[in-house]
Amino acid sequence: MKPWFEKEAEIIPFPKKPERQVIKMPSVSEYPDFITGVLDLQARRDKGQIGQDSYDRLYQDLIHRFMKKESFEKPWFLRELKADQLKIDVQKAIQSLNPDDPEHINLLSRLYTTLNKTDYSERVLQVFSKDEDNAMQKTLDAIGNAFLEIDGTIPEKNQFLDEYEKGKSFVDLDSIAASPGNVKSTADLFIGNIGKRLGTRLITVAGSGYSTGNVGQGEIALASLSREIRLATGGKDGGDLLIRNTPIEVKSNKARMFDKGNVDQGGIKSFLQKARPDLVNANLTVEMVAEMDTADTRTTGEKSGWPGGDDEQFWEGLFNVVLKTRYPDVSLSAKTFSDRVGDGRQFTNAWLQVQFSQYRASAGHKGLLLIGPKSFVYANEGLHLAQNIAQYGYIYYPKTQEAREVAVQFKVQ
Question: Domain check: are 397 and 271 in the same one?
Fold first, then answer.
């Protein structure tokens, strides 16, 4: 028997929605692996079952589930922030580069996993991130883009990652300093087809502030392809790279010998005020002195008022001040330069030697690697770079106090 209220009341049932309209929100805990999760989320997004905001949030949840490796000895909350940021940045790169291609997703995931298993963050990214104008993700984007776009099959690239993870160096470390002064092919620095293609492609990756001393071209490529190379941290390390713990300076096309710091021109100015006050505001390039008295008519330097090469007292006095104030760590006499005024290549070679020696003493490197996408040259003395000079710079340039403005400038293809 029904109760009275049920007899008298008119029961209005709630409308039932068709079961097919009820969409269950996906849970990342249900996915067996990262790739399956990505493909399912993409399919749901494309069908309109989830919006872009939900897709982005679930994608990040997926990253945190599958890409955060745990251990009892060192759980995630004890790891350094940089390492966790590396994971997030690499996965953002995966999402931005080509997330709709399963093979590329898998390849980039393997690239990430390989980097994460090695010490890449400590050797490269944490140092590179000190360049305030560049996030680590820009570096990872460049590496990911290059890895996808270089020629090579998926199996070839997977084999490359297998060998890299096992510790193989794809940089021919012995060839770097094998023939100082000889210009050689950059591709010869790298090992294997994938290594050569990836290495030459990454040569131009650098910090946006590299011209003023931040991570420069060539450094990322070399450190990325050999676990025996790391970016130097500055200070006691010396150089830009530590190659088997040996500090090496790295320069690229249009780079200067001195790329930061100030230059003391006060001593030269004081000398000129006493010897030739009319030249206090005049510029003096290395080329002006090298060509002095070499033409029938007056040279550029002489036209600007500088004395000819036969004024030995003036030039010896000037270079005595130059060496004391600008190159205090180099043991050369002023006559090394005053005797070579107007001698062309002999003078520029002497100037190149003194600049290289002072730079090595101040930077603390054991050698200099000048590198471009096509060629490189290694130097452990100034003369090894004689064929790669764009301009020799200034002996005196009163308008600036920046060392890079007066320094030798390099050229390399």
Answer: yes
The helix or strand, by DSSP H or E, that contains position 185, with its residue range, turns out to be: strand 184-185
> Using CA atoms, how far apart are residues 94 and 190, in angstroms rounded to an integer?
26
pLDDT tens digits, 283-332: 999 999 998 865 554 567 767 899 988 899 999 999 999 999 999 999 99
Do 304 and 275 fall within a single domain? yes
**Looking at the structure, do residues 241 and 122 belong to the same domain, yes or no?**
yes
Handedness of CA 90, 94, 96, 97 (dihedral sign): positive
Q: Is the same domain home to 215 and 242?
A: yes
pLDDT digits (tens, 9 = 90+) for 341-397: 999 999 999 999 999 999 999 888 999 999 999 999 999 999 999 999 999 999 999
Where helices occur in 47-186 by DSSP H, the ranges are: 52-66, 81-97, 102-117, 120, 126-128, 136-149, 154-165, 173-176
Phi-psi region of 263 (alpha: psi -120 to 50; beta: other; left: phi over 0): beta
Residues 107 and 163 in one domain: yes
Do both 401 and 287 map to the same domain? yes
Domain carrying residue 350: 266-410
Which residue ranges of the chain lie beneath pLDDT 50?
68-83, 132-134, 210-212, 297
For residues 199 and 153, membership in a common domain is answered with yes
Ordered alpha helix ranges (H), 281-386: 286-290, 300-303, 312-326, 335-338, 345-363
**Domain termination residue (choose one: 251, 276, 291):** 251
What sign does the dihedral 190-195-196-202 (CA atoms) show? negative
Note whether 305 and 279 are within 8 A (CB).
yes
Is residue 238 within 8 A of residue 363, CB to CB? The reply is yes
- Of 349, 266, 270, 264, the C-alpha closest to 317 is 270
Give the separation between CA 403 and CA 71, rounded to whole angstroms: 50
Asked, for residue 209, whether it belongs to a domain, the answer is: yes
Q: What is the 3-state secondary structure (H, E, C) of 86-105?
A: HHHHHHHHHHHHCCCCHHHH
